[in-house]
Amino acid sequence: MDRLLHVLTDGEERSWQDQANCMGVDPDLFFPERGASTREAKEVCRGCVVREDCLEYALANGEKFGIWGGMSERERRRIRRARALARRANGAASAS
User: 27, exposed or middle or buried, with CB in 10 Å at 0-12, 13-18, 19+?
Assistant: First the structure.
């Protein structure tokens, strides 16, 4: 988690990170080598009370690596794509 906290800017709110299940867990677990299992990291995230906050942080900041909010970059990319499509659809519906 220390590595995760260093990603935040100094003035940014850190209250959700203080409640994270990953506090004290080896950060390397959340940044596995390419092709390595993400199961253990996702298991740490599974019951975390700030999982959604963590995921939204990663989505908002374009985190390209690691497990954030229990999701890999590939999974986060799908969410970003779906949200972009929904915004476009809403914009097109509003313009009509």
Answer: middle
